[in-house]
Design brief:
22 strands; about 650 residues; FAD/NAD(P)-binding domain; NADP; binds NADPH dihydro-nicotinamide-adenine-dinucleotide phosphate; eight-stranded mixed beta sheet; FAD/NAD-bd_sf; alpha/beta
Length: about 650
């Protein structure tokens, strides 16, 4: 359809709003999140072994944890989140020697450990994304860091805070049970030992448990009938198989793809980074698209040391100040005359607040009758940007039909905005074909190829890359137990999943839940949000470790603390989140994705269930407001709302 927008016009065109609805409706699938198979549950071999672990060396080494050990602070996860919990504990005056970390990988980094696909980079500015830059003195090489540098930085942090030898690798906790007599957690875990080796069961007890399992941690693929008979090779981007592609995480020469017909399913934030790399090497690349990404300018730059000293690392506290400035722009709280320090595409998405909270024209407590007006205002805020991104496709992609298919027809908050300078130009290459499935996706495999559900046509390929994302963080009970794929049984043996299903989310400030003493987690439910999720985790790690440390400082007998929010405090906070949940109403009209639990979120019609879902909302007044609120709470120094110390 012809867009009627011209620069400077803010009012959304009703025809385009209608197009948004039509494009969304095309994509709603009755099976919702059940269209996928979680790779941690399937018998697919994609995830069965860690390609990066040195199993022989690990099997020969003295284990960091033995069956029956007692630990003071147990951190589940060795990504940046787990590291931040550990570092912030140490900065609270607690000893690194009392900390143990477990992870199913074999090195620090979490998502940056597992994801090593070619073209991997972080889409948030490295100067604010990479934690602890001031403390480590590290200067990122580029404005946007590449994968290997992000993993190295995780190792750097571990080394600096004496955590390198505190992690037990290839180990996954599957159950944690609170013992009210000892005031400790009993944690059951399994240690993998590599191909052909028997795994080992371990039980230990811990006084405190910190859950840092990550948000997008279970890769999934669509259920594709016939995959088992596909004669080509395939893998998921979260476990890139360089033995199939050639190259390595530090060598982007995908030599083995020369002469090969390669297919990639998915065009999300990962695929946008991968596709330009595949396009360089494959004889032919078929990109199977269900929904196009919105792709903005990246503007990658090497770090210039003069600029670094004069404009970035300008003095003590610079990283926090730069992050606060970034957050003020993405939550639409900045004034037009404020400096925009990061000044990239993120900071110009005025309507991103629809998904992370921020300044609403009607405030943040939106009564049901005002929701249409609130959502209309969000669309108005978004319209100019959305149009300019569609115009950007026309300016770059030469074939008009392909350009039309690459245009996103949804507002900026419905899918992760992407930024890349080589993605759209890749579609001008003669060896790249966009297979637009008109919202239907791929429906199955044959021994030789893949079937486009829209046309029923088979495309013959030799290698298939699944860039199909992860289990939605909005699925299941949403509890930290569900997120970590484990059972957490609190006081009286109550399952945390059962509590969250029955009552809805229930926390104080998104970090702790009544009935689960001495156990902390970094939101995201009832906490806060930002495009820079690393900063969110860090703030919540600081808050959690403060509560733990302060509880220990205040306790008459520190071995007997059982810190948890009181039921009253938890309910009061849940109500505060619920009262502000209407602010997120714009998400309901979104084209399905992991943000809407693949459309399942919109199927909740029962009022009780809607209220439960509303309780899960992160604080909608924006991250600055959340941090002010918890900062004032902390300054009182009373641990108000907590009991058990
Ligand atoms: N910080 C960073 O730099 C980066 C962060 N990330 C994070 O990871 C998240 C996940 O990104 P990503 O890995 O791309 O996963 P996504 O869930 O965003 O994308 C999955 C893709 O697979 C498509 N798909 C799923 N099933 C089918 C099917 N049957 N047929 C055809 N296509 C299908 C989806 O289409 P549809 O949209 O229609 O569902 C979508 O394009 C991002 O949103 C971001 O938060 C990822 C990369 C970089």
């Amino acid at each position: 359809m012809a867009a009627t927008w011209s620069p400077g016009t803010a009012a959304p065109d009703p025809a385009i709003q209608q197009k948004y609805v039509e494009e969304r409706n095309k994509r709603i699938r009755a099976e919702g999140s059940a269209q996928f198979v979680d790779l941690n549950k399937s018998d697919q071999k994609i995830l069965s072994e860690d390609p990066w672990a040195d199993h022989a060396a690990l099997n020969a080494a003295e284990p960091v944890l033995k069956d029956g050990d007692s630990v003071k602070f147990l951190v589940l996860g060795a990504g940046y989140g787990g590291l931040l919990f550990a570092v912030r504990l140490i900065q609270e005056g607690l000893s690194a020697s009392d900390i143990r970390i477990i992870d199913d990988g074999a090195g620090f980094g979490g998502t940056w450990y597992w994801n090593r696909y070619p073209g991997l980079m972080c889409d948030v500015e490295s100067y604010i994304y990479m934690p602890l830059l001031e403390e480590t003195g590290y200067v990122p090489k580029h404005k946007y860091a590449y994968g290997p540098e992000l993993r190295e930085h995780a190792e750097r942090i571990a080394k600096q805070w004496d955590l390198s030898d505190k992690a037990m690798w290839r180990t996954q906790a599957h159950a944690a049970t609170w013992n009210d007599d000892t005031k400790r957690w009993s944690v059951a875990m399994k240690e993998g030992r590599g191909p052909g080796q028997q795994s080992r069961d371990l039980h230990l007890d811990a006084q405190f448990v910190f859950c840092a399992s990550g948000l997008l941690n279970v890769p999934h693929i669509p259920k594709l009938p016939g995959l088992e008979n596909f004669e080509g090779k395939y893998f998921h981007t979260a476990r890139w198989d360089y033995s199939i592609s050639g190259g390595s995480p530090t060598d982007p020469s995908l030599e083995l793809l020369k002469g090969k017909r390669v297919g990639i399913i998915g065009t999300g934030a990962t695929a946008v980074q991968v596709i330009p790399q595949l396009a360089k090497w494959a004889e032919h690349l078929y990109v199977f698209q269900r929904t196009p990404s919105a792709v903005d300018v990246r503007g990658q730059q090497e770090t210039n040391m003069d600029t670094w000293k004069t404009e970035v690392a300008t003095g003590k506290g610079w990283q926090r100040a730069r992050t606060d400035n970034f957050n003020s722009w993405i939550t639409d709280m900045a004034s037009p005359n404020d400096p925009n320090l990061v000044n990239d595409g993120w900071t110009h998405i005025k309507a991103y607040k629809a998904i992370i909270g921020g300044k609403g024209r009607l405030g943040n407590m939106i009564p049901p009758e005002k929701i249409p007006e609130h959502v209309a205002a969000l669309h108005e805020d978004d319209f100019e940007r959305a149009q300019s991104l569609r115009a950007r496709v026309d300016a770059i992609v030469k074939d008009k039909e392909t350009a039309e298919k690459l245009k996103p027809w949804y507002p900026s908050w419905c899918k992760r905005p992407t930024f890349h300078d080589d993605y759209l130009p890749a579609f001008n290459q003669p060896n790249v074909t966009l297979v637009d499935t008109d919202g239907k996706g791929c429906s199955g495999m044959t021994p030789r190829g893949i079937i486009d559900a829209h046309t029923g046509k088979e495309y013959e390929i030799d290698v298939l890359v699944f860039s199909t994302g992860y289990r939605s963080p909005g699925g299941g009970s949403g509890s930290p137990a569900w997120r970590a794929s484990m059972t957490i049984s609190g006081r009286g043996g109550r399952s945390m999943d059962e509590k969250f299903v029955t009552e809805g989310a229930a926390t104080l400030h998104g970090i702790a839940s009544n009935g689960y003493p001495n156990l902390f987690f970094p939101g995201p439910l009832q906490a806060t949000a930002s495009a820079n999720f690393m900063f969110v985790i860090d703030c919540l790690a600081q808050l959690s470790t403060y509560v733990a440390a302060e509880g220990l400082r205040k306790a008459a007998d520190p071995t007997k603390v059982a810190l948890e929010p009181s039921k009253e405090a938890e309910e009061a906070w849940s109500m505060q989140c619920l009262m502000r949940a209407g602010f997120y109403a714009g998400i309901s009209g979104c084209t399905p994705s992991y943000m809407t639990n693949e459309g399942d979120r919109d199927k909740v019609v029962d009022m009780q269930e809607q209220m439960k879902a509303g309780r899960a909302a992160p604080w909608s007044e924006g991250i600055a407001s959340f941090l002010k609120l918890v900062g004032e709470w902390k300054a009182e120094g009373k641990l108000s709302g907590y009991v058990g110390f």
